[in-house]
Queue: 2 jobs
Job 1
Amino acid sequence: MDGIHDMGGMHGFGKVEPQRDEPVFHAVWEGRCLALSRALGAIGAWTIDESRAGVEALPPDVYLSRSYYGKWALRLQNMIIARGLAGSDEIAAGHALRPGKPPTRKFAVADVARTLTRGSFDRPAQSPARFKAGDRVRAKNIHPPTHTRLPRYARGHVGVVEAIRGCHVFPDTVAIGAGENPQWLYTVVFAGRDLWGETADPTLMVSIEAFEPYLESVQQ
Amino acid sequence: MTRDDDQDDHHEHGSELSEMQLRVRALETVLAEKGYIDPAALDAMIEAYETRIGPHNGARVVARAWSDPAFKRALIEDATEAVQSLGLINRVGDHLIAVENTPTLHNMIVCTLCSCYPWEVLGLPPVWYKSAPYRSRAVSDPRGVLADFGLTLPAGTQIRVWDSTAETRFIVVPMQPAGTEDWSEDRLAALVTRDCMIGTGLPKSPKDAL
């Protein structure tokens, strides 16, 4: 989706403003919002790719005007309703008006430890890797209207495969409920001047983590 | 809710703050009453991110890499395995990749599409890492971004930006400050800042350490 979330290379957002001695959470609700989101992911309400797509689906003006956890809270509410975990009437009332959707699996204290470790996204390969380190590849000029992890700034540009990272769950299909569809993942590095033109910093190299369907071969 | 209710975490007005608190509390209450979550489990998760899981873990990793060349080689080879072997924190998830700064190469980490960040070694990302200014400019104008952090690198230093567009996660191993070769790991770890492991800073100078 060519959305506002795909920010690499955009102008006009101003300076980066680090905050000294920043707290982990700036308000109590931020921590509750993060924990609720992780908990529902852990009981299988949604995958990480579906949850990213949930933030990307927010209208651009909302995306830009909300804080980070403000976006999470909106996403959480939207997805709770979309998944049928609770109704908007219940959220408005602030109380359950009906029993939970069976079979209910409760996120309990014993489940916390495993949520603190990232899951594995490695999957058995369905076919050999098409590219190897050193290959020149072009990021395809694609514009899927659904979730993708190929940033716009790389599309159409030629880079070099630096490493093969294994065969991983493919976000583009997971996010639309079309299965894990594992794909080879590569680190592909681009020269800054190929991405941004002659005025770019000549010392700049930028890499993306690119799934095989994002790439096409270039005459070596 | 109006548009600017919560646009800036640092400047929320009391009424807006309570609006978000009420909204999230309503979600939590409904989900708890319907049997999906135990609020005590949320408490435990929040406590972990506020105390145990943070950049102090990454600092231990870097300090070990500086003082043990074999560990550094193992770290660059497979950071998930190497960090695991330190037994610092709970298990480290897959696909952690350590990238090393050298006198001619400076690495920076970004996620232009969302907020991907190596939580297990650095904790939750700071607001600036998730902000539009950082995400938009890190890949096109990294020296400008570094200037926002008060950092100027030699003009000839190559800059490599890693955009975290998949489930691989990156941590920068900065260069060890000169004059600390015989320091203990504890003293070295105190030099390692969060920002130097993202690539937007350098380690503290030995003379600024205790």
Job 2
Amino acid sequence: MTHTPDLPSTLSALDRPNSYIGRSVPRPNIARLAQGRGQYVSDIVLPRMAHVAFVRSPYAHARIVMIDATAAKRAIGVIAIVTGAKLAKVISPWVGVLTHLKGIKSAPQHAIAVERACWQGEAVCAVVARTRAEAEDACELVHVKYEELAPVTDAETALDPTTPVIHAELGDNLTFERKHQAGDPDQGFALADAIVETTFRFGRHTGVTNEPRAIVADWNPGEERLTVYQGTQAPHMMQNLFAKHLGLQEHQVRVLTKDVGGSFGIKVHTYADEMATVALSKLLRRPIKFVADRLESFVTDIHARDHRVNARIGVKRDGTITAWEIDDLTGIGPYSVYPRTSGIEANQVVNLVGGPYTCPNYRARARVVFQNKNVMCQYRAVGHPIATSVTEGLVELAAAKIGIDPLELRRRNLIPDDAYPASGPSGIKFEALSHHACLARLDTMMNYAGLRAEQARLRERGVHRGVGFASFIEVTNPSAAFYGVGGARISAQDGATVRLDATGAIFCATGVTEQGQGTEAVIAQCVATAFGVPLERVRVITGDTDNVPYGGGTWASRAAGIGGEAAWQAGKALRQNVLAAAGSILQAEPGTLDIANGVIVDAGTGRERIGLDEVARIVYFRPDTLPPGFQAEMVATRHYVPRAFAFAFTNGVQASHLEVDTDTGFIRLLKHWCIEDCGTVINPQLVDEQIRGGVVQGIGAALLEHCVYDDRGQLTNGTMADYLVPMAPEMPDIEIGHVVTPTADSELGAKGAGEAGTAGASGAIMNAVNDALRPLGAPPITEIPITPDVVLRALGKI
Amino acid sequence: MSDRVDIALTVNGEEVHAAVEPRQNLVDFVREELQLTGSHVGCEHGVCGACTVRVDGVIVRGCLLLAVQCEGCTVETIEGVSDTGEIADLQAAFVARNALQCGFCTPGMLLTAQELLLKASAAPSREEIRAHLSGNYCRCTGYQAIVDAVEEVALARKDGAR
């Protein structure tokens, strides 16, 4: 078994006695999950709880003429049948716009469709019954008369004057448009010796969390409080939204998030059926449970990507990149998703294209359009796979065109490691990146020269292997620039409260959340190290808006970098408090003392003075023995938000090695490498596993996953038998290396690592496939997923 | 739906008598009637493997078998094999190697891995492990850590048997 080696920090501030920073310690909270003793929302049962199932529109676009629930109301177990119009009296509609995305527009979206359904799968009626099965039985008996309307399905023609406008009051089907120009792209292209121009296409795909979305809402009229058990990444955000749209004060809403069966950005949005569930609880004055089944998940969980990017790169004969140009078009369904909007992904594409390179000449346009398909929104690595595949696809096509090795072309154009702080062509600011160090490390780790020699040898035997690369940047640790400045009440800061209990153990409540990344382990490592106790003495509490500091939750790779720093600072603050108490007990200057391994010691010698349990005993049970006027404070809270940079960009490079069967079009993945730099590595094993999982999600996008719609807006493959996801046999082993460039914005120096794998994997694979097929004269493949069909078409075999 | 059917079976070593709807599948039965929530419902159409349980010693999809079909059977879930200690080494390896993230697939993954280890005469190769786990979907890990953990236990058990 390959164990991840520790990556001990060399930074003095982190170099504490018995430091856990840089150590691959196991997560404290997973033994119970391995025993089947987790508590996911789908497991929760409350007294008087009823279940809701939804009647969903079979049409992509239809007027709801009439709903007849007469027969359904008589069905066994039915408690209530609620239409959109009835529920709209309990919960107000929402509009998914942000003020900093200039010009973005959307229409009011209701919890249950009122008068009109705008995508196949939109809920048009709720059926509440004693059991989910009875609710589904009754759904079958609800008779809905629809008048089918012309669906808008093709993003390419969504803005044509002849195309129907989905929301007439908006005037057209344009959600958002952004144009950007920097440097002198026209002159850049004029100076180029070669220009590569192509169109990249990215299929729609979705998150397929193993546990579907789940929510239990419990309105208690006795105390006028709503308790919501929800698998969400952002409990405080949801608290705000539930309160706002139900007409409650925020303190009347408690959001509890226990175990979450996978998330990846899927569970950070407002879903109409979840809003309907909380409203039904308020309406019916009892707990209501909704767990999406898999078929519902495919037509209601947010979809992602679905971009068409016309792209151009100019390059000189010596390999110097002279200009970039992109025109991005993406269709996002009938509504911009609330509250983060569906404009962010296209905005990210504009921000990130060309980001690793020095060439400043850049022209970009991104248009986001409405269509009658399921909604699209932010999913793991938002925009990054698009921007990286476009940039890196162009780079390798340019390298091939002028006959330069693709790694060499990168060496000549990547921003030098000593040139920071620097900016990308879109104006994004980089504190410190390490593209060249990562590239050099990758070159060695994968034995690039050896692979090329093997490739040539095998080529003679008719074996077609390819190697492809993707240098990437990743947005992590976002400041308020992401959402807060646009008016969304999504916290950019996060807090941690640590408490010494009466036996010397530490409790830490944090605003960041756990969906399997290892948040609780990382927070515990920060607190244990900063304060000075063995890891097993730290208990971490997450996901409870009544009991944790106000915070943003876990998304955009922010939990370790932002939540970790808050926990680190809180641990340090509590150490000072405890040392003050210990000093008064020992009649010593607190500054001469420290805490190591759960014991108060002399700072200089490490000589043990008094146990934490003894300090706690005196403080809590015999405070009468402390000096007059001394009050011990055994709780400390600290908050953190990045201030120096809007985002802590990380960077890295991935490589894919694969073999193409030119008869069947099948692609066999042989190996994948990723070198990444997320700053200080708190837990190397957890970082590596985030990257591996992310890479495999990118592999799914590259080769398998696709939400296939027909021209009437029907999803044609919405089951797990038809929508292919990565399974164990087809996935490669993934080798990971690190370069460490800490951010100076925090003492910990940690940046995020959750999305790096997904950011680069699909681009590296696309480049590797083209590397394999290029000598066969196949035109470049610039669409994903690269199915066998796509390969065989490129080879002219079908 | 009414017309419940009486069934008697053994679940995790305990005799169970219940009246069930004929349409209720096994995983809903163990989760909802017996409160054994360690078996999970991921797709309800036999693809994801989150509902994997053992019936008469063989792993099955709990969503593809009806509870009434288990009359007289011996059913084992993750709670049962955890309490007997049968897979304690696998569980420890999964924890040490971080072979689970969200943990939703893990009970099914462990039971499937245990089946391979019980029937393999020699320690299985990584390819054999991957092939045997081919019906269990994990969105979080990318599978490598799972393969590592199962491989380590396979080798350790073979060493122990020598």
